[in-house]
Structure formats: structure tokens, C-alpha cells
Design a protein that fits this description.
Elements: E1 2-8, H1 12-17, H2 19-31, E2 35-40, E3 46-51, H3 56-65, H4 67-70, E4 74-80
Antiparallel strand pairs: 1-3, 1-4, 2-3
């Protein structure tokens, strides 16, 4: 599983100009079952996406395709982790590391 933390590198007004395209991009990966949750950080200096079911290389490619990235208004920090415990709603993304 991945935590995709994005930080705005441009004023919020520039981010807002790309918001519709960013939301369409998000919707596509929600429909594909890759994105699990997303939203703005508080204070509003970026956002966070939880994703799973793909490789590190795939998630980096996905981040590079974000309209925020291509417009140059954000930078991503991607953290991979093993979700060994989850809520019942996220049981399908729970991982059991090799013993």
C-alpha cells in the first residue's frame, strides 16, 4: 500500500486551475480500484492519497500523470507500507508479510 503525499509548489490559485482535471484523474484510479481514499491536507498546502494493488513503479508512473504534476503545481512524496491491520472496510488491501 502507498501513501501518496502531495505538496503544492505553486499558489493555490494555480492549483485550482487544474482541479477539474485532477479530479477526473482521481476518478479514473478510483474506478480502477487503485485509489482507496484521498483529500486535502490541513492546512491546505497539498493532499494525501491512499493507494494499493500496484507496484512502486506503477504508483510512481500514476503520480507522474497527475495533472497537478504535469502542470508543475505539486510534488509527490510516496511512502510504501505493509498494511497488516485494517478496518473491516479495508480488509481486501490487508497484507500478510512473509514470516
Amino acid at each position: 500500500m502507498f501513501v501518496m503525499e502531495l505538496t503544492y509548489t505553486a499558489p493555490v490559485e494555480a492549483v485550482e486551475e487544474e482541479m477539474d482535471a485532477h479530479i477526473a484523474w482521481l476518478d479514473g484510479y478510483y474506478a480502477a480500484g487503485i485509489f482507496l481514499a484521498s483529500g486535502r491536507k490541513v492546512p491546505r498546502d497539498g493532499g494525501v492519497i491512499l493507494a494499493g494493488g500496484v507496484s512502486r513503479a506503477a504508483i510512481e508512473k500514476i503520480a507522474s500523470e497527475d495533472p497537478f504534476t504535469t502542470a508543475g503545481v505539486c510534488a509527490y512524496r510516496i511512502t510504501e507500507f505493509i498494511a497488516t491491520k485494517t478496518s473491516a472496510d479495508l480488509a481486501t488491501v490487508r497484507e500478510n508479510p512473509a514470516a
